[in-house]
Amino acid sequence: MQLYEILSGHVAKWREAQYKNDKFPAIAEILEHAASSPNLPIPNSHSPTPS
Q1: CB 29 within 8 A of CB 20
Q2: Can you give the residue range of the structural domain that contains 28?
């Protein structure tokens, strides 16, 4: 398993938990706003495949 695949799984779980972060609680609000804003570009969620 590649690192990006492992991280992708962790990020998916974090997203399902609504970006819960006890140390930095504002991060959830920022990420939720970014996800709901139609004018922000969607970043590439996967790294390019090595050739």
Answers
A1: no
A2: 3-35
Distance CA 24, CA 19 (A): 10
Query: Which tokens go with 2?
Result: 């590649």
pLDDT in tens, 1-48: 899 999 999 999 998 998 888 999 898 888 888 878 777 666 655 655
Query: What are the DSSP calls for 25-51, one per residue?
Result: THHHHHHHHHHH-TTSPPPP-SPPPP-
In a domain, 41, yes or no: no
Rg (CA), the chain: 13
31: closest CA among 47, 11, 9?
11
